[in-house]
Amino acid sequence: MSAIGDILKDARKVVVKIGSNVLSDENGFVDRDNVKDIVDQVMELVEDGKQVVIVSSGAGACGMATIHKWARRKDINYRQALCAIGQVELMMEYKEGFGKYGVHVGQILLTNEDFSDADRTLRIRNTIYTLVDEGVIPIINENDSVAVDEIKIGDNDALSALVVTLWDADALVFLSNIEGIYDKDPGANEDAKMIEEIYDIDKLLDTIEIKGTSSFGTGGIATKIEAARRVNEYSIPAILLHGKKKNILIDALNGEAKGTIFYGKEVAFK
Ligand code: GLU
């Protein structure tokens, strides 16, 4: 069994963060097969006795795919309007996918303000617990149509870390369009090696160069590393996996997938 498999076998409560690039094809349209594949896998985790909360990006990408003529509009009102449209498209995919199993989905849209007001935070927490306890899959995204810079969480990697601590999850899984963290850019260096276990993020940042954001999302490697740091502070591990690989979550559970684990120090030296 691999370390990733051990973590996922032990985890009862898992937050799965799904990036825009995982949900979109190369033209920006919803990658229906991949959404279906991920839904099927989440249901396998649930049938295995786990509780799953999804943090899903894709409102912006789905909006652009729906109303192409707005895609080049950079004005904030158009971008927020696109997210309002795209969020519906995105939820339709999840509703259809989980609906085939007779499972409901519940949408929660959050901004930073929700996490800075104790009363609101408590209500969100209660809603997540209630949904999960009742067998509903919560699907969480930033409330992109109302979030302006001042109240923006900014990227769903950070949002997923907030959700992990709020819900007291046992593990965070990033499904991204990269396989893991490499010591060099794997696109430019044939000898690049994946770093499978990270214990010290500061040390990592001293040794590798992080650049680039993803094409459809707002995050990138840097935001994942910072989100991992956040959950690691609570001794919760974060795992980075390639979400475009078929059956990746189940392969990871069975110890048959490669990726990068960020350990909380206490977890690592337990
Ligand atoms: N909330 C954004 C969306 O749904 C994505 C943010 C991100 O990519 O991290 O389009």
Could you characterize what this model shows?
The chain is α/β, with parallel strands linked by helices. It has one domain: Carbamate kinase (3-Layer(aba) Sandwich), CATH 3.40.1160.10. It is about 45% helix and about 15% strand. The chain contains 12 helices and 10 strands. The strands form 2 sheets. It has an 8-stranded mixed beta sheet with strand order 3-4-2-1-5-9-10-8, sandwiched between helices. Strands 6-7 form a two-stranded antiparallel sheet. The longest helix is centred in the first third of the chain and has 24 residues, at about 75-100. The mean pLDDT is about 90. Bound molecules: glutamic acid (GLU). Glutamic acid binds next to helix 4 and strand 4.
Features:
alpha/beta, 10 strands, Carbamate kinase, 270 residues
